[in-house]
Amino acid sequence: MKEEMAEYVPLSQMEDSEKQNSSLIPIKSRKKGGLITIPFIIANEALESVASYGLLPNMTFYLMREYRMDITTTQNLLFFWSAATNFLPIVGAVVADSYLGRFLTIGLGSIFSFMGTVVLWLTAMIPRARPPPCNQSGQACKSTTTSQYMLLVFSFLLMSIGAGGIRSSSLAFGANQLDKGDNNPNKYKMMESFFTWYYTLCVASVLIALTGIVYLQDRLGWKVGFGVPAILMFLSALSFYLASPFYIKPKVRSNVFASFIQVIVVACKNRELHYPNQNSDYHHKNGSGHQVPTEKLRFLNKACIIKRPEDVKPNGVAANPWNLCTVEQVEELKALIRVLPLWSTGIMISINMSQSSFPLLQAQSMDRHLTKGFEIPAGSFGMFMMIALTIWVFLYDRVMLPLASKIKGRPVRLKPIVRMGIGIFVSCMSMVVSGIIEHVRRRKAIYQGLLNNSQGLVEMSALWLIIPNCLNGIAEAFSSIGSTEFYYSELPRSMSSIASALLGLGMAVASLLASVILSAADKYTKGEGKESWVSSNINKGHYEYYYWFLALLTAFNLIYFVACCWHYGTSVEVDITIKMMELSDDDD
Length: 588
Hints:
Elements: E1 8-9, H1 16-19, E2 25-26, H2 38-55, H3 59-66, H4 71-100, H5 102-125, H6 146-178, H7 187-220, H8 222-242, H9 256-269, H10 327-344, H11 347-353, H12 357-364, E3 366-367, E4 369-371, E5 374-375, H13 383-408, H14 416-447, E6 458-461, H15 466-490, H16 496-524, H17 543-568, H18 572-587
Parallel strand pairs: 3-6
Antiparallel strand pairs: 1-2, 4-5
Helix pairs in contact: 2-6, 2-7, 2-8, 3-4, 4-5, 4-6, 4-16, 5-6, 5-8, 6-7, 7-8, 7-13, 10-17, 10-18, 11-14, 11-16, 13-15, 14-15, 14-17, 15-16
Transmembrane segments: 35-56, 76-96, 103-126, 146-166, 197-216, 222-243, 378-396, 417-437, 457-478, 498-521, 545-569
Family: Belongs to the major facilitator superfamily. Proton-dependent oligopeptide transporter (POT/PTR) (TC 2.A.17) family. Belongs to the major facilitator superfamily. Phosphate:H(+) symporter (TC 2.A.1.9) family.
Protein name: Protein NRT1/ PTR FAMILY 1.2-like isoform X2
């Protein structure tokens, strides 16, 4: 078979600027990337979001009814699933950047997610994949077997691995298609448009998941409710691979995470060395100038001390990066360590946001009717958080700030760190309000004689739950956007991937801590004749106490946040070093 030959453009048909580089340019290479690939990338991410987020809201009911788990076991399992889903994108970013590349990482992630949704669908389709229904003859219900439980967990694991591949690289891979290294004056405009559409469709996907998929599960059952996400994931993988010939597929490169490990290892190796008296004894990146390492976390400076001249090659590169690092590597690690205390203050907000099972049981026990013929599915109340987040961002950016700037006569913006603090405060208020609503709901349930009947309908509108959901959305808008902007402004430009990974890591840690808090609350609040705060019977438990306990922890977290802000301060020395590092990157 003949190999396909690429066509070439003659020198006479090229622009003057192109003539300097080559006399022949392959036409086919110029077709790679561009706007034609963006719909496929966005469709892949959007369909994956609809599939995965559509499974979460009603999963509490599926586990409690079909697998007969109690509320604590159910919520803990969902916490672990959430932790894996939020942590694995960080692993995916390392794998994509250092080993497989972004295209292959997204492609494999799509396949894993599809397999996970299929396995979950099979648990609903195959009766022997879950415990048999309880009979009415008075015999004890059969519990979940180990193999049934492992099959369920395996489906969650596959979906988490898939999310790690897709979410870690989708946005960056889309940006690669538009940043083709040319001098296109519309490049940045296209990039801004891509980011806008990307985030808009992600929000729209979550809203569709919280309404459409949840409605299907409520009305048509688990077989259809889990089958539709599996079909969507198949379409997600298919849409991504269809455009494979048109993608720009960047080569793998060294990863910043490996750089951090190198700094720590080399600093430990050189712990016996004395600090040099002159700057020339420190190893710098080529063309970066000879800035001095900062004095904060001084121990790490030993990683960039030149012990012997032969440690540096004639081209200025370290002979062995595990024996000598650059000043820039050391300062990048210091910058990360410096923001970690403030990063940790956002974990409490994520803990509050992750309490998905309790609001679901509350909504299920309340009157959810909007009209006589339509009621909101219990799993769809999370959509109000997304709606509130979207509306608040629009009002804040397009109404409040311009109005404040007009009144003040100068541009007015809240600093990212201030917005982070406001987010923590609003999250605390959300937990307080959630506790008050639950306290009123429980009193009404007991008054109606429903203490032993958790399935009974309380004469109280579930629309009250919109208030804490809206507060959660506003808290998320302040905290997530503010913290992301804070990370990008405080960390060097070369660490942009770290800035985007910190939020996901925070949510992963929050899910694990939330499991610890829930298990402790269940263990230490129940005893002989005493019901746990987080009992599976919502009317016997005291969910309001649990909400108020979270509010108390959030209040302490706000005090911790203020202390971190005071300790963080403004380090001119660090700021100057970071700016010099960014300038050197621009020169390169």
